[in-house]
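A common beginner's mistake is to predict each chain separately and then try to dock the pieces by hand. The better habit, illustrated here, is to supply every component at once so that their relative placement is modeled jointly.
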Amino acid sequence: MKKKIRVGMIGYGFMGKAHTNAFRQAAKFFPDLPYEPELKMFCARNEQRAKEFAENWGYEKVVTDWREVVESDEVDLIDICAPNNMHRDIAVAAAEAGKWVLTEKPLSLNVEQGEQMVAAVEKAGVPNMVWYNYRRIPSVTLAKNIVDRGSLGKIFHYRANFLQDWTISADLPQGGEGLWRLDLDVAGSGVTGDLLAHCIDTAMWLNGSIIEVSAMTETFIKEREHSLTGKVQKVGIDDACAFLAKFENGSLAIFESTRYARGHKALYTFEINGEKSSISWDLHDLHRLKYFDHGDESIVRGWRDIHVTDGDQPYMDKWWVPGLNIGFEHSFTHGVADFLASVDSDKKAQPDFRNALQTQKVCEAVINSGKSRQWVKTNVEL
Ligand SMILES: NC(=O)c1ccc[n+]([C@@H]2O[C@H](COP(=O)([O-])OP(=O)(O)OC[C@H]3O[C@@H](n4cnc5c(N)ncnc54)[C@H](O)[C@@H]3O)[C@@H](O)[C@H]2O)c1
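With all components supplied together, the output reads:
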């Protein structure tokens, strides 16, 4: 008989939906998990909409104050799908109440808050994880396996982009529902914490610590009306960011992100160039991994286009038959499965809070470098 793990979810937006779907699917598609999630309690501030969400997805109870979920005896696990400025307070309170804690990325608004969160979960000894979900797209996990077995040889270069185009209009307000990402106080930063944080997490997972960065940031539209106050206010976030980085292993990197790349909706790509092989990946084609092996016979040497759907490729034995794709949402189901599988083992699912704090350090170094126009050390400990 599986142990039930009672989930308390906070936030019904984009991620509230993605995570709830994952909690519903995980035990069905990963039948060997020791725990089975139970959708116990749901929290958002708008009671009517929270009730509609809870009814649609099958939560038993609805509350409008996150403290009620955190303090409830009926909940074992808190999942934070609220904006970035809420992560610290909820996570620290949840850890102090002895709950397992999952939070969306970025870990926190800044390194100081992140350190408080790490201290809280480590003091309480509670299982914890941050949803850097791209690690769990099978083609990205396959990239990790290829790198780890040394197939690339010495790595020279890493480059990543995350490009969008949804904030180009000067009429777009900042703040409030859906637009909190443009409000510095709620988001902590712009594309750096929102988009580059994903790229940085993947990069350090695949290629080790980033030790130093040199960044250029820009806010193209300097003032926007604030949805909540109705006043025209200064925009404090970075609309675009490009940075150079050095990894501990000696490789060089270039990262770029913007919400002003007309025509791009979520173009996350990365490429790694090693002495023996290269790897390239594109979110828009997420079930594929491109791989170039210099060891191939020269007359057939070229970029392979691996369709990652076979049962011996990461996670794919849990889904359909070879040749059939899975999508973005499955990365969250894999996150739930890996987390629940790791709770009672010595090898904890990653990134845990401490691991995600390292990405926060790089983000903060990038923002500081953008301001100072100097190379900045990240002080990452991996
Ligand atoms: N891993 C990913 O791919 C990914 C993608 C999108 C967002 N995110 C992260 O997920 C988090 C949420 O983003 P989103 O896109 O789902 O946002 P969203 O705006 O779609 O939803 C946010 C939810 O939080 C609720 N909320 C806000 N303040 C609250 C409070 N004080 N108490 C209770 N509920 C509150 C809102 O009502 C809403 O339901 C952010 O940290 C974001 O960075 C991660």
